[in-house]
Structures are given as structure tokens and as C-alpha cells.
Amino acid sequence: MSKLDLTQYEKKIIVRNMQDKDIEQIFELQKVCFPDMDPWKREHLESHLTHFAEGQFVVEFEGKIIGSCSSLIVNFDEYDDKHTWDDITDEGYITNHDPDGYNLYGIEVMVHPDYRGMKIGKRLYEARKELARSLNLKSIIIGGRIPNYHKHEDEMSPREYVEEVRNQNIYDPVLTFQIMNGFTVMRINPDYLPDDEQSLKYATLMEWNNIDYRARTKRYFKTSHPVRIMVIQYMMKNIDSFEEFAKQCEYYVDVAADYGSDFAVFPEIFTTQLMSFLEEKVPSQAVRKLSSYTEEYIEMFTHLAVKYNVNIIGGSHFVEEEDQIYNISYLFRRDGTIEKQYKIHVTPNERTWWGIQPGDAVKVFDTDCGKIAIQICYDIQFPELARYAVDQGANIIFVPFCTDDRQGYLRVRYCAQARAVENQVYTVIAGTVGNLTQVENMDIQYAQSGIFTPSDFEFARDGIIGECNPNVETVVVGDVDLEILRRQRKSGTVRQIRDRRRDLFDLRFKIDTEEKPERT
Fold first, then answer.
1. Is 369 a catalytic residue?
2. Which is the catalytic residue, given 69, 369, 377, 415?
3. Are residues 149 and 250 both part of a single domain?
4. Annotated catalytic residue within 91, 268, 350, 467
5. pLDDT in the model for residue 505
6. Residue among 91, 343, 350, 415 flagged as catalytic
7. DSSP class of residue 393?
8. Is the residue at 342 inside a domain?
9. Same domain? 278 vs 203
10. What is the domain extent for residue 150?
11. Low-confidence spans in the chain with pLDDT less than 50
């Protein structure tokens, strides 16, 4: 007898994290598992993968998705005892996922009926438990359906039904399974899932405690998380060399460090000050000469960020790439690393005089003070960009700008304040003042730089943390509190992020801003 090829008998079952390619199969799975309930939408599952990919699991059997589960992390003590599924999941989008939370909250488990009996549900629950252990979370909490309760509603209350199931006098396919997997009942919540007719909208709130949990001394409820920002309202005046420009920049970074600032913010295209000593009067050629200083500009600000221990938003600078000129803002982190954001919307003036080309990716950057975004001048006037950045986790949007008159300045200011209100985010605008009498198309400047907040009781009365006096060279220093922002997003007078009607409208970029390769 020849040696058997055992691979022909194998039937592979795999538990793994959900991927974008699985979404269509999950839709089909949900139709089979919950035919009478509202299904996921693609934007729900995409949001799950964006905010907490490691908490989403599927079971794959012979190339087919036969089970799935979704979850997020929360600080459960911050939620009302009688919360609903919509409350705890932000209506299914889990944008309230808190990486610093204590509890893993399970929001759905599905197993294809044809594969029940293969312990698919148990495999998914074990994956959740292993995740809770690896992340050192206190517990797993679930809001469990009681789908057989409708058969007993005339003879017993929900509490009595749960007791009968716990005593094994009644079998419930969900509650019995959860009890067998080590979960204990905490309470019964009414109106948990409005479309769960079998459970009559009731759910059992259940918990599995992680006995391996070890308290961490650095994990605590914060009363505040201040981030100090210094905005530089930069004076544009004629200079004779790059060294003179560098000396002015270092002065301001030094001041920012003296004030204990986390960020120093310079204005848009303030490097055009270098044109005052470049012997080129044709604007389209002058910007190319200006671009030749890109390496010196980057080296200077990288050095200053590290030397003074300040994250620097380096205004913006005209950069030549592949024979095209772009308006780029650089983030110089105080650990020496660098990021960049291309200006996406180019003004008619930039296009006509300098031939500036638009970028096509909205970036959100990690810093030691949380996630931030940079939107250069005109970009803040397009609300979709700020909304996308906040959806990706941005807490502060920095807006370097350059405007020549009050009308232009007010467009930037009003839109920055609107974005702060619309998206419950801090916005910071930094502009140029003065004039460059010898530089074509950079004649005059107008600005009143400032730091803005959402509009609610927790913030400054007028939504203004601080602002410069108009049209003079100066700075403004202010603290933004990320903990207040986090709490206000969750329980403010209004909650624009959570209350957005995602069932009516959504935001999606045609170009994948995460996967598009960076220009070099």
C-alpha cells in the first residue's frame, strides 16, 4: 500500500482577525443568522477595522466564513447601567472605542446554522478571552440576547426566565451558551436591541472576569490631560540670508521651550521670506529657487525640535518633487522623526502665480500628545477633510495659513471655528503678518492667529483659548485639555460625532489615503 497523502483529508478551520476581504461573506452570514434583524452596513464593519481591528474575529472553514464576532474596549464604569446596544457601540460604528479602557465589550457573535455543533461559538469566545488576557483587561462584558423568552413571556418575567435558564430548567441557545462559557449575569437591560423581537428587546448584561488581570499603576482615570501650544504670528520682512531666517526661527522655538510648550506652530509658506534675497523676480522661477533650500529647512527644524524638546509644525514650504511644486507642511517631532502633509486644495492664486500642484492624501499623525492633523489654509474651508481626520482619531487640527487681507483671514478663522464645533476637536491657526516689499505676489499679509475649542460648558465661553492681537508680530500660548475633549465627546450638551446620521450620509475618499505610496 502506497503512503497516504494526508493533506487530501485535511479540513482546515482557522480563527483569525477579520479583514476587509471578509466583509461580503459576513453580510451573507448575518442574513442567515439574523434574518429578522437590521444587518451590518459596510461602513459599520470598515469602522470596526479602522478603530479596533484586533478585536474583530472570524472563523474560516475550507475557505468559507462560518462565524464572526465584533468587540470594542470601554471603561464600563462610564456608561449608564441601563445602556442600550446603540449607546455602547455608537450605533454600531464603535468610534467610542477606548484603547486605554478596562473592559472588552462584545457586541455580536454569529455562527452559521449549518456548522453549529462544531464549537464555533466557543472558539470565538476563547479568541476574545485570549485577547483580554494579552491586553491585560479586567473583564469581558456582553449584552446577551434571550431569544427563547418570547415563548415564556405569558408565564414569567424576564428575571424569572433568566433564573430558570441558570437553573437549567429552560434551555436558551444564547444565555445557556454564555453561562457554560464562564459568564455571570450582572443585570437585565430593557430596550437593548429594538429589533430583537424574540428577546422582546431584553438583554442580559453578563461578565467574564480575567483572573490574570494585573493592575497597572499608570492606568487611572485622568482628571486632565493638558497639551500646551504656542502659535507664532510670524512677521514677514526682508532678510539677507538663510542664517538670518534660521536665527528668527530658533528664537521662537526657544520661547516655546521656555513656556513648556508641547507644540510650536509656524504659518503657511513663511519660508517665502527667503525670496527677499533671491535674485529672481519671476514667481514661477522664484519658487523653484526657494525649493532648493528644502534640505536646509528640514535639517534646521529637525535640529530645533530635538534641541528644545518641542514638536514643531513647520508652517509650510514649497517643495519640488518629480519636477512639480507642492505646498507641504512638515511635522518635526521632538524625538527626531518627521512627517509631512501636502496641501490638497490649491488656491487660484497659487496655481496662477507659482504653478502649485495639489496633494491627494489626508494624514493623521501620532505624537506624544495624541493624534493630530495638519490642514493648510484653504484646506480647512472644506469640511470633509476635518471630518475624515477626526474619524481617524485626530484631537487637534493645526492650520498654518497665509492671507493678504481681512476677508481671506476671516474665511480661515470662521471655518476653523466651525470645524471645531462640527467635529468636537481643537483647531489652531497660525498666520503671517507684515510685508515683503521686494517679493512678487507676497506684498502684504493679514492675520490674527488663535486656538479654538468646541462650544460647550467645559470650554472657554467664546470657544477661544487664546488669540494674538491682529497684524503684529507676536505669539499666543494656550493649553488644550484632551481629557475634557474626550468626556465632552461622550456626554456633552450636543455630541456631533456620535449623533451624525450615518444612516443617511457618509464620507468616503476615492483614493485610499492609507495605502497610497508616499512621494519621495
1. no
2. 377
3. no
4. 268
5. 84
6. 343
7. T
8. yes
9. no
10. 12-209
11. 218-220, 514-520
